[in-house]
Amino acid sequence: MYIQVLKSKIHRVTVTEANLEYIGSITIDQDLLDAANIIPNERVSIVDNNNGERFDTYVIAGERGSGQICLNGAAARKVLPGDIVIIMAYAYMDAEEAKTFKPSVIFPDSKTNKLIK
User: Fold this and answer.
1) What is the pLDDT of residues 51-107, one digit of tens each?
2) Residue in 58, 66, 92, 104 annotated catalytic
3) From the candidates 22, 25, 45, 92, which is the catalytic residue?
4) Is 25 a catalytic residue?
5) What residue ranges define each of the domains in the chain, with the CATH number in brackets?
6) Which end of the chain is least crowded, N or C, by CB within 10 Å?
């Protein structure tokens, strides 16, 4: 049996942009993606701490070191720049593997979206 478990989490970053005219997705600084073990085109769930919205989309890599967190397309209607969001990715694995699996969880500075060293 396979179950779905948390694989990656970017905890409490600030939305820098909301671009309604883009096709769709979330653009995330490549440094954050690397640290959280998330890859471009991967499906992610997003939770907005300011308004309670929860939705899924896919990832586009943003400029490394930019701190960019940009919701694109329809998702741009669910957030405002300045909102604090949590970004999560999940993976399927067998129940035995899931018992010992450790997700990649990062806690960037929520004012700059930069990794805390």
Assistant:
1) 999 999 999 999 999 999 999 999 999 999 999 999 999 999 999 999 999 999 999
2) 58
3) 25
4) yes
5) 2-100 (2.40.40.20)
6) C
Tokens of 66: 């930019």
The pLDDT assigned to 23 comes to 82
What would the pLDDT profile of 8-60 be if each residue is shown by its tens digit? Answer: 999 999 999 999 999 879 999 999 999 999 999 999 999 999 999 999 999 99
From CA 69, how far away is CA 92, in angstroms rounded? 26
8 in active site: no
How many residues in total does the chain contain? 117
CA distance 64 to 39: 13
